[in-house]
Amino acid sequence: MIPFFKLVRLAAWTGARRRIAARYRTRLADVLLDLPTEAAEARHVYHLFTVRRPQRDRLAKALTDRGVGTAVYYPRSVADQPMFGGGERRWPEASRAAREVLSLPCFAALSDDEVERVAAAVRRACERL
Fold first, then answer.
1. How many CB atoms lie within 10 A of CB 24?
2. Which class is domain 4-128?
3. 115 with 23: CB under 8 angstroms?
4. How far is it, in rounded angstroms, from Cα 56 to Cα 99?
5. How confident is the prediction along the chain (129 residues), in pLDDT tens digits per residue?
6. Rounded distance, CA 46 to CA 13, Å?
7. 55: phi then psi, degrees, rounded to nearest 5
8. Which of 43, 89, 92, 126 is deepest in the core (most CB within 10 A)?
9. Residue 31, phi-psi category: left (phi > 0), alpha (psi -120 to 50), beta (remainder)
10. Distance in angstroms (rounded) separating the CA atoms of residues 9 and 5
11. What contacts 94, CB < 8 A, 6 or more positions away?
């Protein structure tokens, strides 16, 4: 259950994350990186700002070396879970996506300077990979 005091702040937090995501999209538009998209009929809340790059692990290390935290929330696709017995052959794109996605910092308290620093670090890392 979500405490009421958090629900009161939900719209403000969502607005802040949407602004952060917009800055990331602007700063990283020309970088070889798949960025999150937003459907015309929907509004993304950017609980996560997950990008995709074939060299995800190298990108994550380069960002960590620059002091930028990243996360991989879903290291395996659902089909690749042991209980489903090897989805790589049946759903190769899902398996590939699980190996390539990486989440960048995207929380309401992130300052403009921090967003700029993260975007600059991502840009530099992608240029060097």
1. 24
2. alpha beta
3. yes
4. 7
5. 667 777 788 899 999 999 999 999 999 999 999 999 999 999 999 999 999 999 999 999 999 999 999 999 999 888 888 887 766 677 889 889 999 999 999 999 999 999 999 999 999 999 998
6. 10
7. -95, 50
8. 126
9. beta
10. 7
11. 77, 78, 79, 80, 87
**Lookup: tokens for 108:** 């309401």
CA distances from 126 to 95, 98, 100 (A): 22, 19, 13
**Which among 92, 113, 97, 95 has a CA at the least distance from the CA of 34?**
97
Domain ranges, ordered by start, for the chain = 4-128
Query: pTM of the full predicted structure?
Result: 0.88
CB 93 within 8 A of CB 34: no
Find tokens 């090897």 and name the residue. Answer: 86
The neighbouring-strand residues paired with 34 are 52
Please, what's the largest Cα pairwise distance for the chain? 47
